[in-house]
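Dear support,

I submitted the protein below through the web form. The confirmation email said the job was done, but the results page showed an empty box. After a refresh the structure appeared. I'm attaching both so you can tell me whether what I see now is the final result or a partial one.
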Amino acid sequence: MWAPEPFFQHATILLASQHSFCSAYLAQALSMFGLRTIGPFDSETELQALLDAAPPAPAAIIVAADWLRDGAGTLHASLEQFNVPFILVENAPWRSVSSPLQPAFIWPYAAFQIVEALQEAVARSMGLISPAQIERQGS
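What the results page shows now:
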């Protein structure tokens, strides 16, 4: 059975979502992999407060893709300045989405893929793997 890498097993994941059901479902899926979640947060101010108050610092952030669609265009820049890896999750797959930032994951069907992507993002940020290694693994 698949299990997270040791560096990732006790990671803390911040959830951003405007849909509490989606956040609750994803938090439950992540907890099955041994990951702790905090959030969800509903504004950049709340995100900053969670980052400041969360010991230890979160390993990664999951962002609902609709944040970037519905007027939170500055969120992407804010996340980059926090220097915490993040991925986008499409939490309303019936809505059309196209993001130039990175591919969105459609869930609840892709919980495993989301954990894999988070693990890769964290490993890359820690210098454990390079983007070239990820490309080679994918081919």
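Response: this is the final, complete result; the empty box was a page-load delay. The helical segments are 20-32, 44-53, 66-69, 75-82, 111-125, 131-138.
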